[in-house]
């Protein structure tokens, strides 16, 4: 978030060094509460929406929910899953971004008195936002997040499905463990490759507090960011996002497939 919203960092390692120098280890864990509290619910809603929406499309088009879907069907279901995520994640994203861009020097790094931070934690951050900006403040950057999650979720599920089909030998109905790992990892990388530009814009819009009003909306934020820093600004944090995405989504899809197979074996 800091790399995406601030232009004085020379790169990833410079950001790490400066964060540690001024805020020590705790600086790397700002905003983590909001993410931890929502991650399981968001994942459940996202994958549940995808599975049910895909089943509904297949039933409507082919007469059976378990019919083989087309690439368009998978993409539409993925986009629906992304849209469902936005409703749940936008408030936590705002809190995370505000917390991570908050400057709170560690007492050992300065001789000046350390002022009391504006936000004492993620939940306190949400309370302050509601007080100062109203409930609408919790959905700041919603348009950018919607663009990011709908497009990236569509390519996420489509690429996973396509890679699984491509890597699974003929005669097997389900992909193997290694296929799921690789397909999930690459799907995550592709999704973040597509989603990073809107992720940058989302973060910038969400750091724009009520007393700043730097951006009038999505298009204005894109235009101003590109005008001041060039088109490369839209890809800030791309490498870090992709490096993180591969192992995370390997685990996500292995878990997803495991749950589906457990359900099919013991429930159905």
UniProtKB/TrEMBL annotation:
It is found in: Mitochondrion inner membrane. One of its GO terms (molecular function) is transmembrane transporter activity. Keywords: Membrane, Mitochondrion, Mitochondrion inner membrane, Repeat, Transmembrane, Transmembrane helix, Transport. The keyword Repeat applies. InterPro entries: MCP_dom_sf, MCP_transmembrane, Mitochondrial_Carrier. The keyword Signal does not apply. It comes from the Eukaryota. This is S2547 protein. GO terms for cellular component: mitochondrial inner membrane. It comes from Chloropsis cyanopogon. It is a multi-pass membrane protein.
